Amino acid sequence: MKADFPPVRACIFDMDGLLINTEDIYTLCADIVLEKYGRPPLPWSIKAQLMGVPGSSTGDVFHSWAQLPIPREQFNKEQKEQQQIHFPDCKPLPGTAKLLHSLTAACNINGAKIHIALATSTNRINYDLKTSSPETKDLLSNFDDNRRILWDDPRLANARGKPAPDIFLLALKSINDSLAEGEVPITPEECLVFEDSVPGVEAGRRAKMRVVWVPHQALAAEYEGKEKLVLAGRIGLVKIGDESQLGEVDDGWGVKLSSLEEFPYRDFGISVMP
Asked: InterPro entries, from UniProt (predicted)?
């Protein structure tokens, strides 16, 4: 890690696959429909190309592989029906409850309060389903309502999806707009983005924020040997231009963790209560 980074003052979190186990549930729902039509389970070699990509379940990559005997719209409808059944079974991932609870009471090494926000590509209907259990509802209650950015938030009107930086920049704005009197506005360099998807990491890098990548174990296996490119935001699953926004390999702005358990607060200039 570069020694000249300022201590973190804000942490911005993705939700799906990072805080709650929705990636496994998305796979389950897809597999149920695939099996119904005699197709094999969704392999991670394909899923890795879909995660974090808007509209990927109805896109060419998935359907070129799936070769389903039904229209894309029918698959989408049946998949959503399964999601309505299974999303309420979402659970927090290991370490997430402790991390969020600790950050709400934390300061950085300069004594500045740590602020947190949520930035998810999930819409309100699916968010309510995913957070309907007591465990997930309690987990997400750590975020103030105005610092909880969902994809259909009116504040995101005309915004681009990840890997564009728009949602993370809005999350930072939501924090700065609600700082206490006397608090200096937080800069992107003072922000730490938490992501599990590759496009999400790229979005964080494009926002000029530091990034912690916490991939699903199976996703990590798919990108073995390419971790440095992921952390630089240079995989390029979705081409959006603005190459100058991307990072450089080994520039210190991104790190990979296997889970959010035993998070290394001190590495980011964060002090937590014992």
From this structure: HAD-like_sf, HAD-SF_hydro_IA, HAD_sf, PGP-like_dom2
